[in-house]
UniProtKB/TrEMBL annotation:
SUPFAM superfamilies per UniProt: GroES-like, NAD(P)-binding Rossmann-fold domains
Protein name: alcohol dehydrogenase (NADP(+))
Family under the similarity heading: Belongs to the zinc-containing alcohol dehydrogenase family.
GO function terms (MF aspect): alcohol dehydrogenase (NADP+) activity; zinc ion binding
Keywords, alphabetical: Metal-binding, Oxidoreductase, Zinc
Cofactor annotation: Zn(2+)
Catalytic class of the enzyme: oxidoreductase
The Enoyl reductase (ER) domain, residue ranges: 18-344
Enzyme Commission code: 1.1.1.2
Catalytic function, reaction form: a primary alcohol + NADP(+) = an aldehyde + NADPH + H(+)
Length: 352
């Protein structure tokens, strides 16, 4: 593929809530510090559905979703020092930031004071960014992640969003030996949280609506599995956990879950429900409890996560699909019909 600006095959939503369709989008020339990545796999994140539906405000269309990208370097700029041809690399939720603000200098580029440049759909210089549902992408080497050999590329792709989304709060609140951690929700985020918390050495409990996924939860590293639809769960587990990570994007009874925390415990939320969620102040005051939020991590922490996952044999549980199955996958994901992450095989651009 040429290192000059070119058109690449992609799947895009032409308008809000429209089905995705095959098209082409431009990729910029490979600059001095850029790498050209041949995308091998792209994960489908639930946030892709929200973006296409414009659930989070006005967005840019046509939109090529995808911020869970795994591939191989096929060209490098003259100033690139971190990667060579053939390196296995990934791209997560953002591809640039100001690099000079307090947050960027602290390694929290995701909270850039000027606003990070999202992998899609941003327009920092007037031209839109396009995500990973495509064959190639050009990214600055400093916003590119190295995927270690210990993880298969298809299983690594969802780690670039889902993996760091769970790794960051688990590390921040010191999940590890002697700590009791609960993961709320056993889906695309939650199942990775179970694996990581187990690998960190914590005692792991899954809190799911039903016991339908109990066998999977225990297989992936959970020590205990409880149904939140059973009121006895909240009585039996009261005051049990040092940390609860809530992965669901629906409104839950925060007071009930705060009641499951030990003194000085934390309920960290990574799911983003569309409606406000009330909480009683006494649920926090009694027991010095903390209600917190967590997003993704910066570049350094994301690389740390990938290295950790490779060292512990952690990848996402995936269902691989062809590019012409994307709309069907969106419907199934909206219905909760996936165990546990859809990943697009971009080689099928050439065969479909």
């Amino acid at each position: 593929m040429s290192t000059s600006v070119t058109q690449v095959a992609a799947y895009a939503a032409p308008a809000p809530k429209a089905p995705l369709e095959r098209t082409t989008v431009p990729r910029r020339p490979v600059g001095e510090h850029d790498v050209l990545i041949e995308i091998k796999y792209a994960g489908i994140c639930h946030s892709d559905l929200h973006q296409v539906a414009e659930d989070w405000g006005q967005a840019l269309f046509p939109m090529v979703p995808g911020h869970e990208i795994a591939g191989v370097v096929t060209a490098v700029g003259s100033g690139v020092t971190k990667y060579v041809l053939g390196d296995r690399v990934g791209v997560g939720c953002f591809v640039d930031s100001c690099r000079t603000c307090e947050n960027c200098l602290a390694g929290d580029e995701q909270f850039c004071a000027s606003g990070m440049t999202a992998t899609y759909p941003s327009a920092p210089d007037g031209s839109a960014t396009y995500g990973g549902y495509s064959t190639h992408i050009v990214v600055d080497e400093n916003y590119t992640l190295r995927i270690p050999e210990g993880i298969a590329l298809d299983e690594a792709a969802p780690l670039l969003c889902a993996g760091i989304t769970l790794y960051s709060p688990l590390r921040r609140w010191n999940a590890g030996p002697g700590k009791k951690v609960a993961v709320v929700g056993m889906g695309g985020l939650g199942h990775i949280g179970v694996k990581i918390a187990h690998a960190l050495g914590a005692e792991v409990t899954v809190l799911s609506q039903s016991l339908r996924k109990q066998e999977d939860g225990l297989r992936l590293g959970a020590d205990h599995f409880h149904a939140t639809s059973d009121p006895e769960t909240f009585t039996k587990l009261a005051g049990s956990f040092d940390l609860i990570v809530n992965t669901v994007s629906a409104t839950i009874d925060l007071d009930a879950y705060l009641g499951l925390l030990r003194t000085n415990g934390t309920l960290a939320n990574v799911g983003a429900p569309g409606e406000p969620t009330p909480v009683g102040m006494f649920s926090l005051i009694v027991g010095n409890k903390t209600l917190a939020g967590s997003m993704i991590g910066g570049i350094a922490e994301t690389q740390e996560m990938l290295d950790f996952c490779a060292a512990h044999g952690i990848g996402s549980e995936i269902e691989t699909i062809a590019v012409d199955q994307i709309n069907e996958a969106y419907e199934r994901l909206a219905a909760g019909d996936v165990r546990y992450r859809f990943v697009i095989d971009t080689a099928t651009f050439a065969t479909r």
